[in-house]
Specification:
The protein is of the alpha/beta class. The chain is built from ten helices and 15 strands. Strands 3, 4, 5, 6, 7, 14 and 15 form a seven-stranded mixed sheet that branches. It has a six-stranded parallel sheet with strand order 10-9-8-11-12-13, with helices on both faces. A two-stranded antiparallel sheet has the order 1-2. The radius of gyration is 20 Å and the shape is globular. The two termini are 32 Å apart.
């Protein structure tokens, strides 16, 4: 937790008003009992234990709903967890108890956590995963949306693609949770942006200065070649599949494809890596790069640094997460159904009820 200590002092944060809520004997969580559709998500009651040594117990206010959660539930993620398991990649809440040896946070602190799994619960237990104190004034739904979607967008743009002010980029899935985050951060960078999205979502792109190009890869390639004959500086791809080839077709020499979509299986991951190696070595000068939040296991400082920047932007009102819906935690199956429907602009979040409502 030493890296966390370096960042917890960025904002003077008073103890959160929810610190003294009554602690229940049980808590509820949403569990994927087997691989399958949204119907495999069930609500389970568990005894609420005291935190162990080195562990922080957080009462959850909200958690994010992501495509990664869906892939894990389907058993299609690169490293699927064992079933049954509780999905949930991010959570925000208030520390209500700490185990021996925990000094980076204290009861009453409001924190955001990159859980990877376990977020769909009224309480989460944090031991090694990244965690940071945040201002009590920030909206919980916006906090969890920033925690993953804006983190990926920020790292894809700044750390992986190393985008510079005024460059020209294409964003696939541009109206999705991460796509809308890339668009907002791209506005701050003064980028010229093209977006691939369904017709129903294109008005949002137009309103945010993005040129919509449709959702069919071949049509997008034709449009980019006509509008940008010299090619694009970067393609930010969260869709994968055929888009890898389409992206390479529209990059200028020296351009970069940043692939942050979960390939879906270890085999698909290997194929993407082999394709990247072949293209980076033998291609026409364009590069393929990938990004995963899992890099925090090797060095969490870039993640925590990005969070610090992003929450300052959120607090200043310079970014405003697009939230498609706020859904009760125990209705996570409905949130997954809506996300998979593909009709919404932005992200879905799950909102937890206070313990006394259990």
């Amino acid at each position: 937790m030493a890296a966390v200590r370096a960042f917890v002092g960025i904002h003077p944060i008073p103890p959160h008003s929810g610190a003294h809520r009554p602690v229940p004997a049980e808590y509820r969580c949403v569990v994927a009992v087997r691989a399958g559709g949204p119907e495999v998500l069930e609500v389970v009651r568990r005894t609420l234990p005291e935190p162990r040594r080195g562990e922080t117990r957080v009462r959850v206010e909200a958690c994010g709903v992501s495509a990664v959660d869906v892939q894990m539930r389907q058993g299609l993620s690169t490293y699927p967890p064992r079933f049954p398991f509780t999905p949930g990649y991010t959570a925000v809440g208030v520390v209500d108890a700490v185990g021996k040896g925990v000094t980076a946070v204290a009861p009453g602190d409001r924190v955001v956590v990159l859980t990877e799994t376990g977020g769909y619960a009224e309480y989460v237990f944090v031991r090694r995963h990244p965690m940071m104190r945040i201002p009590a004034s920030l909206d919980a739904g916006e906090v969890v949306t920033v925690a993953l979607n804006y983190l990926v967008a920020h790292q894809a743009l700044s750390r992986v693609a190393r985008i510079r002010h005024g460059q020209v980029v294409l964003v696939t899935g541009a109206a999705g949770g991460i796509g809308t985050a890339i668009v907002q951060l791209g506005q701050l960078l003064g980028l010229k942006m093209y977006g691939a999205a369904d017709a129903a979502k294109q008005p949002w792109l137009t309103d945010h200065g993005v040129v919509p190009l449709g959702s069919r890869g071949a049509d997008v390639v034709d449009a980019v070649r006509r509008l940008e004959p010299d090619g694009l500086d970067a393609v930010l791809d969260g869709v994968g599949g055929e888009w890898v080839e389409q992206a390479l077709a529209v990059l200028r020499p020296g351009g970069v494809l940043v692939e942050y979509a979960n390939p879906g299986s270890p085999g698909a991951t290997l194929r993407l890596l082999l394709r990247a190696v072949r293209h980076n070595v033998a291609g026409r000068g364009a590069r393929i790069r990938s990004y995963s939040t899992g890099v925090w296991r090797f060095d969490r400082r870039p993640l925590l640094g990005a969070w610090a920047t992003l929450y300052e932007l959120l607090e200043a009102g310079r970014i405003r997460p697009v939230i498609a819906g706020r859904i009760p935690l125990l209705e996570a199956a409905r949130a997954h159904t809506l996300l998979e429907g593909g009709d919404a602009v932005g992200a879905f979040v799950l909102i937890a009820s206070p313990p006394e409502a259990a």
